[in-house]
């Protein structure tokens, strides 16, 4: 089982893998790592069960695994594990996600 699949968000939290920008142009020119911008786009890896109301009912989030989403420029909690060296994962509240891309 991969390390990411063991991370289960609580309540309305959503685990997102940020999509990396291309480091190569269409003509094959390599772009330096510092010049590559971070994209504000990601893929949902896992979703918590949702918020709980005062009456105890769970309100599920509108996202599911595999959805492509638009992320805010700032925010989210970075997830750092030794086994996830080359990939960037962030934990957001469902209400912080700007949009679902189709």
TrEMBL record:
Keyword Chaperone belongs to the record: yes
SMART domains: Cpn10
One CC-aspect GO term: mitochondrial matrix
Gene3D superfamilies: GroES chaperonin (2.30.33.40)
Pfam families with a match to the protein in the record: Cpn10 (PF00166)
Keyword Protease attributed: no
Swiss-Prot/TrEMBL keywords: Chaperone
Domain of life where this protein originates: Eukaryota
GO molecular function per UniProt: ATP binding; metal ion binding; protein folding chaperone; protein-folding chaperone binding; unfolded protein binding
InterPro entries the UniProt entry points to: Chaperonin_GroES, Chaperonin_GroES_sf, GroES-like_sf
Family the UniProt entry places it in: Belongs to the GroES chaperonin family.
HAMAP family: CH10
Primary role: Eukaryotic CPN10 homolog which is essential for mitochondrial protein biogenesis, together with CPN60. Binds to CPN60 in the presence of Mg-ATP and suppresses the ATPase activity of the latter.
Name of the protein: Chaperonin 10
